[in-house]
């Protein structure tokens, strides 16, 4: 059974109603990115950052996986599928995909400020005063700018074994995630799904459509 590694970004979740990471003006939900997605921003105003991610977490209970999420689950009938996602939502889980790597963390988890490996499931707001087992403040289990990406090595290992790489809804401009494409085997099939021309290469099949609109095209390429 051939192995497909899927790299997903904000574009696939946007079709479920989750706002993309940053708008064209460089803001995220009217906040400067570094205010809400960096260690320095958190240290400066932890309440603002907690509130920001509390709202993102609450939104998860108002949205649902879309056709593209469900299609990736269906691919498991014919392929060995691993999804590497830059998204922090749980829509791939709710679509019941079997093999998932979250590069940038998960909204429905919290962790100790002091120990990045002390991670717990968390479905409600994180309040100032909510403590981890080690007595430190709980913070969102999100990889912020300036922090290491703990799952990157695992993601690289998966990409190296891929027979087909399917990239959906990401500009391929956020590093180190964007560098994953550099680890594929020579001459493997790379299919890129994005309505924009943000990423170009002669060796890539580029389908200029949204994720849910490209399903039939992907099926045709894969012979399904």
Can you walk me through this structure?
- With 224 residues, the chain is an alpha/beta fold.
- It folds into two domains: 1-18 and 65-104 and 149-224, 3-Layer(aba) Sandwich (Rossmann fold); 20-62 and 110-142, 2-Layer Sandwich (SIR2/SIRT2 'Small Domain').
- Helices cover 26% and strands 21% of the residues.
- It contains eight helices and eleven strands.
- The chain has a six-stranded parallel beta sheet with strand order 5-4-1-9-10-11.
- β2 (27-28) and β3 (31-32) form a beta hairpin.
- The protein is elongated and about 55 Å long.
- The two termini are 14 Å apart.
- The mean pLDDT is 91.
Looking at this protein, list some descriptive labels.
11 strands; SIR2/SIRT2 'Small Domain'; three-stranded antiparallel β-sheet; single chain; 2 domains; Rossmann fold
The domain tally reads 2
| Low-pLDDT regions | none
Radius of gyration: 18 Å
How is the CATH topology of the largest domain named?
Rossmann fold
Round the mean pLDDT to the nearest integer and report it.
Answer: 91
Given helix and strand content, the structural type is alpha/beta
- Per CATH, the class of the largest domain reads Alpha Beta
- Do you know the CATH architecture of the largest domain? 3-Layer(aba) Sandwich
The succession of helices and strands, N to C, reads EHEEHHHHEHEEEEHEEEH
- Record the strand order, biggest sheet: 5-4-1-9-10-11
Instruction: Tell me the β content.
Output: 15-25%
From the N-terminal CA to the C-terminal CA, the straight-line distance is 14 Å
Number of strands: 11
Number of helices: 8
What's the shape? elongated
Main beta sheet strand tally, sense and closure:
6 strands, parallel
Residues in helices, as a percent range: 25-40%
In the CATH hierarchy, what is the superfamily of the largest domain? TPP-binding domain
Determine the oligomeric state from the structure.
single chain
């Amino acid at each position: 059974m051939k192995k497909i590694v899927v790299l997903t970004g904000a574009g696939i979740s946007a079709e479920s109603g989750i706002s993309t990471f940053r708008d064209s003006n460089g803001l995220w939900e009217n906040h400067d990115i570094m205010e809400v997605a960096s260690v320095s921003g958190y240290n400066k105003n932890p309440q603002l950052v907690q509130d920001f991610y509390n709202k993102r977490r609450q939104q998860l209970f108002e949205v649902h996986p879309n056709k593209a999420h469900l299609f990736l689950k269906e691919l498991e009938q014919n392929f060995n599928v691993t999804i590497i996602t830059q998204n922090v939502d749980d829509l791939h889980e709710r679509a019941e995909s079997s093999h998932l790597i979250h590069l940038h963390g998960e909204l429905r988890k919290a962790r100790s400020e002091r120990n990045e490996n002390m991670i717990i499931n968390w479905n409600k707001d994180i309040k100032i005063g909510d403590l981890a087992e080690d007595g430190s403040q709980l913070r969102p289990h999100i990889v912020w700018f300036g922090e290491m990406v703990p799952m990157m090595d695992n993601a690289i290992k998966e990409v190296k074994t891929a027979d087909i790489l399917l990239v959906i809804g990401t500009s391929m401009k956020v590093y180190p995630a964007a560098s994953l494409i550099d680890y594929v085997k020579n001459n493997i099939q790379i299919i890129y799904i994005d309505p924009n021309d943000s990423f170009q290469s002669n060796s890539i099949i580029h389908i200029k459509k949204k994720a849910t609109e490209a399903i039939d095209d992907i099926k045709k390429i894969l012979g399904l």
